[in-house]
Amino acid sequence: MTPILQLILELVIVIAAAKAAGLLSNRLGQPAVLGEILAGLILGPSVLNLPGWPFITDAHLAETIAHLAEIGVILLMFIAGLEVDLGQMRKAGRVVLLAGVFGVIVPLLMGLGTALPFGYDLTQAAAIGLLLTATSVSISAQTLLELRVLRSKEGIALLGAAVVDDVLVILVLSIFLSVAGGGGGGLFGILILIGRMVLFLALFSVLGWLFLPWLFARVHQLPISQGVLATAVVVALSYAWAAEAVGHIAMITGAFLAGIFAARSAVHHQILEGVSALTYGFFVPIFFVNIGLHANIWELQGNLILLAALITVVAILSKVIGGGLGARVGGFNASEALRLGVGMISRGEVGLIVASLLVAGGTVPDEVMTLAVLMVLVTTLVTPPLLRVVFAGRVESGRR
Predict the structure, then answer these.
(1) Between 20 and 30 A from 41 (CA), which of 1, 11, 15, 31?
(2) C-beta separation of 347 from 133 below 8 A
């Protein structure tokens, strides 16, 4: 079988399996992302080992799938930027900022402290801590919407804190990958890195603020087939390229920034609709299944089983403690702070993005990907029921 036929057949299997598993997950009352991750685990070396099937003979096929998955990450972060409501975040103010910052610092330190006794060096332990910093509130938001408390004081603060959390995680991840990957060069190297980051953020923020809304409006008026969608893809990929080439930071930083400024366009909803269809219909299933193709539960032996259990428990507790502490310092009472902290437990796709970048960069061994997948699965599963418990006293007030 020729390489292109092998690629086509593997894409058919990957996308069909991801969507079928996502549908089953929804039918069971769970988010689709949970099923898609499980599909990847089943197709990976943990169960069926798709890359080892007899018809897979192309040595470059795994690399091609990985590249498509990376494009999926870029477009996923572009969508995340499109959905950021900076005005809403500013209104929640101090609580949002402190909950987001503490929600990164506490998991990072607790994860680092958990990994060190298991033989990882300081850099690897810090990377494992970094795995726990991400948060994904899509699951929490859906649960709060069902409870009719999404627009409550805690719900609004949770959405804003998640934005602060994501921005901070992306920036910390970018710096970490540069320094850990040998781009540090001591204090001078770090200063150079910060200078390049500032240059990129300043230059492309001005460009995005002044130029992107006009560009999308102009393209919308031109007789170009799917012109707005094509422009959005070009912008997302261009910002992703520039983030690494100019700013020496992670590509997802640029894509996220591009999404924030694209959201200011008058055709924002058209951009979101088009990019979401392309991303969730093709690239995202590849991304989630590709994670499973690199995760092997049989690697969890001996101390790794204990570490996986501890990391999962720490992942849950650290977000409740970190996000809750930040909210408490910001002015929430104890009950409100607890609700916000619980809402930040789920790691979702952001946690997988962080894990895939750390493993791909060689910062941590492949076994860490399996740890990350299991952690994401458990935190995704426990968040909805825990939210229903802590918001039980708020449900009736939310129905008024």
Answers:
(1) 1
(2) no
Same domain, 63 and 107: no
User: Where is 342: in which H helix or E strand?
Assistant: helix 334-343
Average pLDDT, the chain: 86
Cα-to-chain-centroid distance, residue 279? 14
pLDDT of residue 127: 92
Q: How far apart are CA 64 and CA 5, in angstroms?
A: 13
Say what percent of the chain tops pLDDT 90. Answer: 43
Residue with tokens 């093709």: 282
Domain of 242, CATH number, reads: 1.20.1530.20
CA distance 67 to 55: 21
Instruction: Judge if 189 and 40 occupy the same domain.
Output: no
Percent of the chain that is helix, strand, coil (3-state, to 5) = 80, 0, 20
Give whichever of 55-69, 86-100, 314-328, 341-355 has the largest mean pLDDT.
Answer: 314-328
pTM (predicted TM-score): 0.76
**Length reported for the chain:** 400
CA distance linking residue 164 with residue 85, whole number of Å: 11
Last residue of a domain, one of 35, 52, 67: 67
Number of domains in the chain: 2
CA 322 to mean position of chain CA atoms: 18
Per-residue model confidence (pLDDT) at position 88: 62
Q: What angle do CA 21, 251, 322 make, to 5 degrees?
A: 70
Measured CA to CA in angstroms, residue 314 lies from 83, 107, 164, 400 at distances of 29, 8, 21, 37
Structure tokens at 177: 């990958």
* Residues 127 and 137 both lie in one domain: yes
Whether 128 and 43 share a structural domain: no
pLDDT by residue (tens digit) across 55-103?
888 988 989 998 999 898 899 888 878 876 666 666 667 898 999 999 9
Instruction: Give 53's DSSP letter.
Output: S
Task: Check residue 134 and give its pLDDT.
Answer: 86
